[in-house]
Amino acid sequence: MAACHEVNQAGGSLPVERVALLRNRYTEILSEGEVLNPQAEKSGKRGRTRQSKATHLLWRLRTYADDVWRFASDPHVPFSNHLAEQEVRMPKVKQKISGGFRTRNGADAFCTIRSYLATLHKQGSNLFHALTLTFQGQPPQPPFGLTYTALGLGY
């Protein structure tokens, strides 16, 4: 989490030297974890030997270290996938509260409206104004065909 705060304070990516220092510490921590959670010995049976969840997590964190640390060098990559989780939350809450959707068409309509509003929100539109225009028969259209660069998101 400290690296996340450093990236936020830096207003973008961290200097290469700082990322290297943090990644070295990350590697040390993974090594300590591997000592505490060694791989299971081969059982002699065919196939891979089942590993503990901790061992598998350590393997994934080491194997995908570049992906884990991408947020530190690319300012367009968020520290977490919290935004993606938020997008899934509303339909799940709707399902939990009302017991689900009565029809497939109702679920599709709900998801279409949520997606439309989420897109407008991410583009900085006033949602109340957008809904007002929609009910007046003049729904605002999110700009299509724009590149990430045109939206100021890089890539």
TrEMBL record:
Superkingdom as given in the UniProt entry: Bacteria
Positions of the Transposase IS66 central domain: 16-108
InterPro entries per record:
Transposase-related, Transposase_IS66_central
Q: Read off the PANTHER family from this record.
A: BLL1576 PROTEIN (PTHR33678:SF1)
Listed name of the protein: Transposase
